[in-house]
Amino acid sequence: MLNIANAKSLFLAAPFLAASAMAASLADLSNVDASNGLKAALEKGSVTAVEKLGVPNGFLSNDKVKIKLPPILEKARPVLKMTGQGQQLDDLVVSMNHAAEAAVPMAKPLLLNAVRSMSVSDAKQILTGGDTSVTNFFRDKTSAQLAVRFLPIVKKVTDRSDLSAKYNGTMAQVSKLGIGSQQSTVEEYVTQRALDGLFTMIAEEEKAIRRDPVGTGSKIIGKVFGVLQ
Length: 229
Known about the structure:
This protein is mostly helical. The chain has one domain. 75% of the residues lie in helices and 0% in strands. Helix 2 (31-53) runs antiparallel to helix 6 and helix 5 crosses helix 8. The longest helix has 26 residues, at 133-158. It is elongated.
């Protein structure tokens, strides 16, 4: 019969036993399986994020990633409204979000290339690196290239706004004084917000995969991420 002392010892040891069991499961997982499962999850998460954002109103209708006015314009909103430019502000918000949704599909090939370039030796480290380690991998590998790809597409859309041109002109003057920001044009601002939105959605997909790997419908994702449950 299990006495109170033994029961207490088992209770205290339970977390360590669980940790040991998980470690054993990870150790038993081959590098090939870890790599294949992680790559499948990377592809699924990135493609799903792109598909959700790269559609009409993909940014505008999603409060998590919706792009708001640059801070300077937001502060000036009351004055601009008084001068009859309220509608232009609203139009600019719509324009910025449409620009982001137009640019995001360009991310898909770069994200998939990043997946294919991942080494087998890195797979288990990424797998156990936390809820957003996959997202961090993408951010490190693709941010600079994505910004270069996004910028001309965003600019093509935002250039249609008169207020965008006025903002860029004002920021150019401010930059000459040495107090400008790194995103001194509307297109630079939108490009950065589009990247932030993309990685936000990839993180959401990653968390969903980790939470319910079997629910992805992929056997290899279920097997690999299942050992972390």
